[in-house]
Design goal:
The protein is mostly helical and 151 residues long. Helices cover 57% and strands 8% of the residues. It contains eight helices and three strands. A three-stranded antiparallel β-sheet has the order 1-3-2.
Length: 151
């Protein structure tokens, strides 16, 4: 859990992360699925792979590459711990809810005190910036701390 008061990621930072992820996922999926073009399996993978990769990254690393580059971390709103896989799936599918009414669910963060979008509220997640990232950063630990964790 981050020390002190958490800093919630704002619209600009999250929008930049979303655009970076879109670019990265678009290129990677294009390269991976190009050999399968025309096959029904490619259409299924085009939906399943982004969901599986995104939810997995939220759970294991706390964010997608775009979020991490923008120093953001997706966490459970209750304890600021890792987002469970189940909450991650709800959050991912909740993007549709946030997008449907002209993107109002994404813009909601501009009014919300914890900068939550509709998909964050639905999944019980927060996007933090700064100190939340340091809690699992092994590069900031001493050798003695790392050795103690191995025992």
């Amino acid at each position: 859990m981050p020390l002190g008061r958490p800093e919630y990621a704002g619209f600009g930072r999250r929008a930049a992360a979303f655009l970076l992820d879109g670019l990265l996922f678009g290129v990677l999926l294009g390269l991976l699925l190009a050999p399968l073009s025309g096959l029904a399996m490619a259409d299924v993978l085009n939906y399943v792979l982004p969901l599986a990769i995104t939810v997995g990254l939220w759970h294991w690393l706390g964010g997608t590459p775009g979020k991490l580059l923008m120093e953001c971390q997706v966490v459970d709103a209750r304890d600021h711990g890792p987002l469970s896989l189940a909450r991650g799936v709800v959050r991912y599918l909740g993007y549709l809810l946030s997008l449907m009414p002209l993107g109002l669910g994404f813009l909601w963060m501009l009014l919300d005190p914890r900068r939550q979008t509709w998909h964050d509220k639905l999944a019980g997640s927060l996007v933090l910036v700064g100190p939340g990232l340091e809690r699992d950063d092994e590069s900031r630990k001493s050798l003695a701390q790392l050795m103690a964790e191995l025992r």
